[in-house]
Amino acid sequence: MRIPFILLVALDLIAQSSSLSQRAKDLHRQAFVFDGHVHVVNRQFYHGGSMGERTNRGQVDIPRLLEGGVDALFFTMFVTEDYYPQRYETKQVLRFIDEAYRQVELNKDKIGIALNASDIERLNRQGKIAAVLDLEGGFDMDGDLGVLRMLHRLGLRSFQLPSHNYANNFAEPCCASTKVKGLTEQGRAVVREANRLGMVINISHASQEAIQQAVETSTDPIVSTHDGLKFFNDIPRTMSETTLRKLAAKGGLIGFHIGNEFHNRPLFEHRAKLAGKPFWDREDVHSAKPLSIFEIDRKIGPQFPMMGISNPPAELVYTVEQWFRAVDKAIEWVGEDHVMLGTDFDGGPTPPTPMQHIGDLPWMTQAMLNKGYSEARIRKFLGGNLMRVFRQVTEKK
Description:
By secondary structure, the protein is α/β, with parallel strands linked by helices. Strand 4, helix 7 and strand 5 form a beta-alpha-beta unit. The radius of gyration is 20 Å and the shape is globular. It has a single domain, classed as Metal-dependent hydrolases (TIM Barrel). 42% of the residues lie in helices and 11% in strands. The termini are far apart.
């Protein structure tokens, strides 16, 4: 029987992904790996315990960070929309920051908080992982520059300008109806203050217009920590070629979400069908009865860690080599200096096979070698580019 060409290609990709070469292991171990979007703080807040212990509930813990060769990561804190109607969102940010510091204290021999690039290097010399406090969702500060300054004093060094998928009063999100188009003048003031403070501005979850206006306003490079390309999946959550070119022209970076759904239209449609709606969409929480913050905690806790589809149809799941086509396309458009890693582990991705958790990051290095990437390009993607921008933003001379 004659085997179809497309099946031969698929079998070849599977064969390439069947083992980690010594070269990939060595290169990954030697490379600086900086993940720009990880949700371990959310999980630990709701379920307690220490991230120093290996968990079977989630994709990230210190043992697997070490297995994945991670040198630095953004400790991303996501306040779900459920906290907004009672105006608990800023209080919840403070609780998450407290949890981040608690986790570091529990594991201070292995991890530390970094406020700038020099801190990351110092912690790495001490044999520790560096954690950067990062906030997902600008709604949490309501455009208040005083709140932004206080969060900076508490150690926050990165924040997402728009709300997650919810309207705020200063930056248009990608996936919620709002009267705001692009950025308001208050949104521009937030950008300028972040520049002055030395905070990384993340425009994931923003509309294309808001991204472009933020790039125009900012004097620093801007990043989209966990994103995809409309070229592969034309949904509101992904970035157009025009927007990406403008982002890169100002020195910015696009991080590639590890979820198949961002780059794999058939799997996205499968997940949307299971959910009955696009996977980022939420119920109208305004219609719910008022709850205390502790009642909301109990309601939200079971959602974390957010995981991808369990046992997705094999024919719909990309290999890690196929997943890298999005990175290839971005490099084709804007060059290798404008791509970065932003997995969103513990935040809902369905990883490409054979990856399951953050300890599997060496498979990315193997996949890049399989695709003929140079070692210099691999190092830039894994962490070099994000470290360069983080240094530029946080260590202004």
